[in-house]
Amino acid sequence: xxxxxxxxxxxRFGGVRALDGMSLSVDEGExxxxxxxxxxxxxxxxNVITGILPADEGEIFFQGGQQSLxxxxxxxxxxxxxxxxFQNLRIxxxxxxxxxxxxxxxxxxxxxxxxxxxxxxxxxxxEKKVFKRGMGLLDxxxxxxxxxxxxxxxxxxxxxxxxxxxxxxxxxxxxxLDEPVAGMNxxxxxxxxxxxxxxxxxxxxxxxxxxxxxVVMPLSNRVVVMDDGKKIAEGPPEEIRxxxxxxxxxxxxx
Length: 254
Ligand SMILES: Nc1ncnc2c1ncn2[C@@H]1O[C@H](COP(=O)(O)OP(=O)(O)O)[C@@H](O)[C@H]1O
Ligand SMILES: [Mg+2]
What we know:
The chain is of the alpha/beta class. Helix content is 41%, strand content 22%. The termini are far apart.
């Protein structure tokens, strides 16, 4: 039984068919690379899985549940253990790193976001735990000792790391990363690749949208290729590299 099983999702925007019967599964602890030319529908696929956009058709099953996640709010989906980062960075820039992570943790528990923001009694009660786990996550992401720094002061690469740390704070079973190394230099890309491997070692599965083949191919246990809202190929990285349909789709883009 796969951890995530997405069956035949369709999504239109007016006349544009962004997703056209797209299916994909992710096994427990697996890293799956999701590639495809610009406009293939990759980000839309994440938006549908995470409840940000409603699907027109299709079903989403998670952790062997009989009930489809389709139609659930993004908040409920997050609580089920499905977390993501965004192609365009989304962090709270005027908050500290630890506060950003606390928001992630509280989005998992009963306390509302407001308690994290305003440090009500509940926040104080749990603060020590939040602090300890938050520091652990920052350490994992290579941001140790910067917990009290304002997020806006971080480099772009470190802000991307912070966004991943915040997603991990929600204790996901599956992490969806949308182009996590976009705009990074080769050594930063290598560091993020290593972090993704560490995340996998913690037993968290990763579905990774990434354009840079040098990053996605060595990381992925399996690669799924999208074009025009559909899956056009799927297999081990070394097979996908040689697949004529995949090469064609990318040549079409160039
Ligand atoms: N919110 C939206 N409203 C209208 N069209 C959209 C929206 N999001 C995506 N699209 C369209 O859907 C198609 C797929 O886009 P997207 O999912 O962003 O592709 P990718 O992430 O693979 O580059 C594109 O044609 C894009 O213009
Ligand atoms: Mg995209």
